[in-house]
C-alpha cells in the first residue's frame, strides 16, 4: 500500500521516493543516488562531453545558469551551423520561472526531442524558439541564435520573417489548431501568401501539391473543406502541410500525435519521419517516451523547467542515467511490467486466484466451452440464456464459479448508428477484463450498458447471476452498490458543491459516526491524508481527484468496478501511482474489474483477458498476453503494430538495467 | 429600457489560474457594497438621511441651486431634491425588488417544472418561454400597463411578467444541464432514488446561482421601473420616484441641471453597484456548477 | 430554413394570441376596454361588437381575429376613429430612421472599441469594462438627458426636439446607440481576446502573420459569433429604447404612438404595436441567423 501523494501539482516538489529519486537538478545530493548506477560514472557515449549525465560525480549542479556546454552529439550541434541554439534559457511569467536554464540546439537534418510531463516547461521552451512564448513572457538567455542570427535582439518584424519560413509549427489537435471557420486550403495558402513563396496565381495548385505530399487523398475536395469535416488523421496531415508549406528547414512539433488514435498516430509519425528523410530538422515535444524513441536522434528530458538528462535517444531510453528518466521509463505500463508496481518495480500482491480459466468445466452450464475462438462470447450466450428472471441474490465469496457480470449479445444504436453491435463478455470474480479500441469503437457505450445506465436494444446484462438490464430502476436500486463506476474525468462526476469527504460519504449507507470513520479509512486506503476530506476537488490535482473517485467507487465494497479510461488524462508518473493503487486495492478486495482503455500498454499491464473492439463489435478476445503476442484478427495486428516502441525493439516501458535488477530481486 | 446583461460570461480560466485567484475576487467589493447599504438605509429610514419633507412645496424657493439648506438644490416647485432622491429610493427600489422577487419565483417554478417534466411537456414549455422572451420586455410591460392602467402595483406586475420568460429559460437550461451531468449519473450508480437525487443534487445546483441572477436582474428591473415611471405610468405625482423626477426635470434642464443630475446619479450608481456585486458573486460560482 | 420560417410564424402567432388574451383578460367588459377613453356612443359600441364578433362564441371570435390579421387588417382605433394600419403607416418612417441610425452607430462604435482595445493589456480592458458597466447601468432616458444638457442646451449644436433634418437625428440615435455600443463592444472584445488565445491563433502567428492580419483574417469572425447570439437583446434594446427616445426628444414615431395608446388605453393600437414589434423581431433574428450561418459554417452540418 503506497502512501504517496500525487505529484502533478507543479509547484509541489514530489515526495514519493520512487519518482523523487530525481531531486530538483542543481540540488542533487550525490549521496542519494541509487547504488549500482551512480558508481558507474556512466558517460553515455556521445554525451560524455556534456559532463552532466553522471549522477555519481555530483556534477548536476552544472545545470544551473551558465554552466551548460552545448556541444551536444548531433551533427553540427553547437557550432555556427546549428539551426537554432540557445544557452541558459530562462522564461518566466509574472515572476514564476517556467523554463530555468535550458540549453538546446538543433542541427540541420537532426531530430531532437524534448520529453517531459505537464508543467515541465517543454512547450514553452519550444515556442520560445519562434518568439512565441506568449504575452507577458520574460525571456532571458546567455546566447540565442536562430537561423544564424542573434535572436536576443529580434523585434516582432524579425521574428515574423522567420516564422513559417525558417521554422514551421505543428501543434496538438488540428481541430483547434487550424482556424475552424476557414477552409483548410485557405489555411495552407496563408503561409504561401505571407512569405510570398509562390506567385499568387500558382498558390491554388501549390496547396493541392502540398496536400498530396502529406498523403491527403482527393486534395481538390479536401482543400475546400473545414477542419471539422475531416477525420483526426487528415486534419493533422493538413496541419503539417501548412507548417511545411514555405519549406522551412526546421519543423517544431508540439505533441503532434497526442489525442490521436494509435493507428493514426503511427501514420502521422511516419509522415514526420518522411519530412526528416527529405532533409528537414525536427524538434519534437512529447510526453510519450515511446513516440520519441521511434524517431528522435537526441532526447532531452525536462522536469520543472530544467533539462535533467540529455543524450542520444537509444542511450537515454534504454540506459537512462538520471533517476527521473528511469522512473519515467519504469512508470510506463506494458507487458514487461505485469505483476509489478509501476512506481518502484516491486511485485504486486497476488490477487485471489480467479476461479478457473473459462475452459474448465466447473459447472454444467460452462461445460464444453472451448478455450479457442470467442470462448467468452459463447459462454456469455449460454449464461444469458440460462439467466432467468429470478432475482438471484449475490453469491457468497465461495461461489467463485458464477461470473459476476455477463453481457450477452448486447446491441445499442443511437439513431441509425449502431454503436454497440452483438457484444458478449463474461467477467469472473476477481478478474480484470480489458476493453481496448480506438475512439468511436463503442467502449464507453459498453460501459454504460454494463452499468445499466443505458438499456440495450438487444441482448441482456446479468449481474451476480441475476438479471440486470431490462429491469425497472426501482428493482435495480438495491443492487446498484454491487457495481461501481470510475470515470475518465472525475471532476464531472463530483457534485461541485461538495468536499472530498462528503463525496466519498455519498454512496455509504452507514450511521453518522461509522460513516465518518469509513471515509477516513477510505481516504487512507487510496493514499490521501485525512485533511483532504475538507478540501474541494477543484483545489486538488488530477491524480488526487482520481484517488477520490476510486475511494468513492470502493466505498460500497462492490463486486464489479467499471473503469472507463481512468488514467488517460494523467501524466505517466501519476498514472503509474493510480494504476498501482487500483491493482493493490483490487487484490485486497477481490473486486472484478472491467477496464476500458485506448492504451494497449495499460491494458497489457493490468488485465487478465481483453476484448478488442472496432466499430461497435468485438473483433478479438482472449488472454491478454495471447492476444497481444499473437493477434489473429487483422485489426488487432494493425493496432499492436501501431504501438510505438522504444529502440532495440523493446516495447514501450521495458526497463533498463535497474528495472531488471528490481524484477530479479522481486522474484 | 431593461437591458438584460448579455450572458456572454468569460470562459472559466484554467485551473492553475483559478487557484491563484486573489482573495479580492471572492469577497464582494467594498465600495459598491457600502453604497448599496446606503441605499438600503434610504429605503428603510429615509428620515435619517434627509430631514426635509419630499412633498413640501415652497414656490418661493423654486429652482434654488445646491447650497446650504438645499444640498442638492430644489426643484421647480421648490421641493428639496435631496429629500426627494432619498425618499424616492423607497419607490424605485421597492418596484425593482418586488418585481424581481415575483419574476424570479415564477420563473424558477416554471423553469423547474419544464426541466423536470417529461420530454413533451418540457418541449412545449420551452417553446413558450422562447416565444415570450422574443418580445421586447418594455413592450410586454406596456401591454400589461395598457390593460391594468398606470400605478405602482401595475408597474411591478408588468415588469415581473415581462421578465419571467428570461428567468424560466435560464432555470430550465440549468436543470437540463445538471440532470445530465456526471454527478447525477454517478448518484444513480450509487443506487440513490430519483427523489433523493433531485433533492440532493439537482435542486441545490440549479437554485444555487439564483441569488446572483436576482442581483443582476434587480438592476435591470430598477431601470425598467424607472423607464415606465419616466413614461408616466408608474407612481403618480407628486410621489417622488427617480424616473418620474427625471421626467419632470427634463423640462427645466436649461435652468436647473441639479434637478436631473441627482436622481440620475442615484439610479445609475444603484444599478452599477448591483451589477458589480452580482458579477463578482457570479465569478465565485464559476466552476461550482456542473 | 423551413424550420426558421416556421419558428418565425410561431412567434407571430404567439404575439397575436398573447395580445388577444390580454384583451380578454383585461378587467371589465371587452367592449368597454376597446372603447377605452374614446367617444362612447351606442353606434360605436355596435360597430365594435360587429367588427370583433363579440356576439359570437369565443373560438369563432379568436379565429376571426386571426383571419383578419392574416389579411393585413389591424383593426380600428375607436379613440382616433382611424384605421390602426393607417396610424402606424404614417409613423413608421421616423422610427425606422431612428433605429437604423442607432443600430449603425452602435455597431460601428462597438467594432471600433473591440478592435482598438483587444489584446492591449489591462488598462484597455478596464476601460472597456467600465464603459460596458455604464452602458448597462445608465437608463437610456438619462443618456438622452445628459446629451441634451451638454450638446443642445449648453453647446447648442443640435436641436432639442423634433424630427426635422439630419441634425435632429444625431442625439436620439446616440441615445439609443451608446448602450448598444457599450455592451456589444465588451462582448466583441471578449470574443476577440478569446480567439487570440486559441491554438489556431498560435498556429497563425507561427506562420509569420502580423497581429493585425490575425485579427482581421481570423479572430474577428470568431468574435462575431457570441455577438450574433445577442440578437434578442439587440432588437429589444432598439425597439424598447425607441419608445423612450421618441418621447424624450419629442420625435414622432411608433414609440410615441405606443405610449399615447397605452396612456389613452387604446387597445387596438397597443395590440398592433406588439404585433409589429414581433414582426420586426422575426425579421431581424432571421437576418442575423443568416449572418451566423455565413460566419460559422459548422452550424450547417
Give a summary of the structure in a few sentences.
Chain B has twelve helices and no strands. Chain B has 290 residues and is mainly alpha-helical. Chain B has one domain (71-288): Orthogonal Bundle (MetI-like fold), CATH 1.10.3720.10.
List the helices and strands and how they pair.
The complex is a heterotrimer of chains A (667), B (290) and C (301).
Chain A: E1 84-93, E2 96-106, E3 111-115, H1 122-128, E4 137-140, E5 143-146, E6 149-150, H2 156-162, E7 167-170, H3 174-177, H4 184-194, H5 200-213, H6 219-223, H7 232-244, E8 250-254, H8 262-277, E9 281-286, H9 289-293, E10 298-303, E11 306-312, H10 313-318, H11 323-330, H12 375-386, E12 405-414, E13 417-427, E14 432-436, H13 443-450, E15 458-463, E16 466-467, H14 473-476, E17 483-486, H15 490-493, H16 500-505, H17 512-525, H18 542-554, E18 560-564, H19 572-589, E19 592-597, H20 600-606, E20 609-614, E21 617-623, H21 624-629, H22 634-642, H23 657-666
Parallel strand pairs in A: 3-9, 3-10, 7-8, 8-9, 14-19, 14-20, 17-18, 18-19
Antiparallel strand pairs in A: 1-2, 1-4, 1-5, 5-6, 10-11, 12-13, 12-15, 15-16, 20-21
Chain B: H1 15-19, H2 30-44, H3 46-49, H4 81-116, H5 119-134, H6 137-148, H7 152-179, H8 182-189, H9 194-207, H10 210-230, H11 242-249, H12 257-285
Helix pairs in contact in B: 2-4, 2-12, 4-5, 4-7, 4-10, 4-12, 5-7, 6-7, 7-9, 7-10, 8-9, 10-11, 10-12, 11-12
Chain C: H1 2-25, H2 30-35, H3 42-52, H4 58-70, E1 76-77, E2 82-83, H5 84-117, H6 121-137, H7 140-154, H8 167-197, H9 199-205, H10 211-228, H11 231-248, H12 254-264, H13 267-295
Antiparallel strand pairs in C: 1-2
Helix pairs in contact in C: 1-13, 5-8, 5-11, 5-13, 6-8, 7-8, 7-11, 8-10, 8-11, 10-13, 11-12, 11-13, 12-13
